[in-house]
């Protein structure tokens, strides 16, 4: 590095370290906070029936998240086409069938293609449930040759358990970059969204891409399209929750260490904050969200309300004990606060008031949680818990 560039580089590193150290990791300093009322409409009417939830309060909350956090997600397009570009019925030494599917979506005479990768177990006698991963870790993570076996996407273990596993690289819809995120769905299909303060940005685009994958699954006889499991880690976990909240075709929504603006309560003064995340990753969210930096109490929503939008479908939140940045306790508290909506549907989740011990999994009807030992990642241990939860859930549904 040139001498003249060393000092600026050092200053940037020091600033970054100071910012990280400035975040609170002391529970005694969290302070008091008041969450928006989940079952009170904007006209202050108490919601006590499924009808009022589905017709009034749920649409209100969905609209608030669209306008203030993630941006609206357009549903219209002119055409969608599917092409199986690669088929191997003898993958994984005969245990699985591999398909690569080009999903091409056209709007206003412009097109975007998503490359969907998927394995289904050959031993299956009927259509299988499908794990769908919103992958921001790069295509090598989902190596279809299986020469690179990454615990982030443990295809062999999932196939052995009788499930399908699939995924797409978010670069196909919106690159994970503060400049290049426009390239793809946004500038090609929905350029008007970029002009809106409540317009779709990267996280919404990733969920939009996942929805197009389900459009394909509904055509594939090897897949049980009524048993789709959305999975995302970190920023992908944020997208998974927002996607699962909107698309009722998702049977189980899994958020792995999604943290701030994912599963963790925003009003808790712990770990990452709205200020930090909107400063470093503004392109994940609609521009309106930036006004809540250091101003979380003015947010008309909090993340327990996002989880509640998924009810009565299933949701699983995973954390890691050393990932304090993502606030494991804040994620668990959001789950507990969402329970009131499940109760409307007579789903009695009965989560313990206190977060479970490290490596202790909680499985309740429609809700699951674990906080494993270790750092920020998605590991085979996490996947074992996801599979166990899905087994339990689908046995009853």
From TrEMBL:
One example GO MF annotation: carboxylic ester hydrolase activity
Q: Which UniProt keywords apply?
A: Hydrolase, Serine esterase, Signal
**Keyword set includes Transcription regulation:** no
Ranges for the 4-O-methyl-glucuronoyl methylesterase-like domain? 103-343
InterPro entries the record matches: AB_hydrolase_fold, GCE-like_dom
Keyword tRNA-binding listed: no
Q: Which Pfam families does its entry note? A: GCE_fung
Q: What name appears for this protein in its UniProt entry?
A: Alpha/beta hydrolase
Lineage, opening ranks: Bacteria, Pseudomonadati, Bacteroidota, Bacteroidia, Marinilabiliales
